[in-house]
Each structure stands twice: as C-alpha cells, then as structure tokens.
Amino acid sequence: MPSITRTVFSLIVINKAGGLIYQREFQPGLRKLSTNDYLVLAGTFHGVHAITRSITPKIPIAQPAPSPATSSPSATAPTASGYSYPNPGVPVTGLDYLETDKFRLTCFQTLTGTKFLLFTDPLTGNVENIVQKIYELYADYVMKNPFYQLEMPVRIRLVHILVSGDDSVSYTKTTHFSRTIERTQQGGSRIQDKQK
C-alpha cells in the first residue's frame, strides 16, 4: 500500500488584538493573497472566534422540585436558578476547527490570546501535534528573543527557517553581517558569522 503524504497549506499567527503577526504558505501552487487580504482574514477570524465563544449555549439549571407539603398552588413549575455550559469542566474556547472537503482550519489559542491558524489537508493526521510543535518554536525563538516586541509582527528569520523545516538553509541578514546556517548530518548546526 503506497504511503500518502498529507499537506500543510499555510500558517497564520494572530495576536490577542486580532492583528496578523506571522504568515507563511507552504505550498507553491496556492492562490496568492495580498498582505491586505491576510490582514482582513486575521481580523475577521478574530471576530468570528470571539462571537463563537460568546454564543456557546448555556443550559438552565433547575432548582430541585419542592416537596408536596411545602409547595404552594402558585408554584407549579420548577424555576431556573442559573445557567451552566453543557460541559462545565471544559472552558469555552470559541471556534476550534473548521473543516471543508478541500481544507481543514485548526485554531490553537494560547492563554495569552495568541491564535495559531493552521490550514491543512482534511485527511492530515496529528494536526494538534503539529500546532503544538509550532507553538513550542514560537515560545522558544520568538518570546525568548530579547529584541522581539510583544504583539508586533514576527520578523525573526530563524523562525521562518525552523517552521519551513529545511535541512540546509543559507540566508543573509539585511544588517552588516551575513549568517550562514548549515545543518550537519549528525543533527547539530553550525553558525558562521562573516563581516560584509
């Protein structure tokens, strides 16, 4: 039986205010969207996510039925003393995933409100594990970077390289140094800085 490779199409990271802070396409054949389209998509998804979180239905909690000796003739039906979510042990999250016959959109929201949107083939397995790994890369290489400003677009080239998963990558920084990262066969990496 031949192995089938499932596809990751795109990754979008949205800050807690609904602004686009990172976007990456992984498939070259996708229809290209403009930067403005991605900004609109991020803001729209942020709004839809907030709406779906707020419209999660609540079920009325009925008071226990009064005993026949203490009941009055005017109290014929139990009254609602409050409302509860269908599964009170699970926090309300909003839109977690959206699946069509062409793609699956998975949303992972951090405790700080940052959302990771991963567009994949509907049959791709372990999507939650992929998103979790991307979040770990974000935490390690973006949030621990002393030069990164919170809620601003991610302009860290190393994150772009790590997310793409290239085995050997060469790039030049726009500053006075050019940096070459070469992955060795042993799994380590060697970083060389060269003065321009």
TrEMBL record:
Keyword line: Endoplasmic reticulum, ER-Golgi transport, Golgi apparatus, Transport
Organism superkingdom: Eukaryota
Subcellular localization(s) per the UniProt record = Endoplasmic reticulum; Golgi apparatus, cis-Golgi network; Golgi apparatus
Q: Indicate the principal place this protein occupies in or around the cell.
A: endoplasmic reticulum
Low complexity bias (residue ranges): 68-81
Recorded hits in CDD domains, A to Z, give: TRAPPC4_synbindin
One of its GO biological process terms is:
endoplasmic reticulum to Golgi vesicle-mediated transport
Name the GO cellular-component terms: endoplasmic reticulum; Golgi apparatus; TRAPP complex
Q: Which residue stretches belong to region Disordered?
A: 62-83
UniProt KW Transport keyword: yes
The family database entries (InterPro entries) matched by this protein are listed as:
Longin-like_dom_sf (IPR011012), TRAPPC (IPR007233)
- Family of the protein in this entry: Belongs to the TRAPP small subunits family. TRAPPC4 subfamily.
Description of how the protein assembles with itself and partners = Part of the multisubunit transport protein particle (TRAPP) complex.
Which protein, by its recorded name, is this? Trafficking protein particle complex subunit
Origin organism of this chain?
A: Penicillium antarcticum
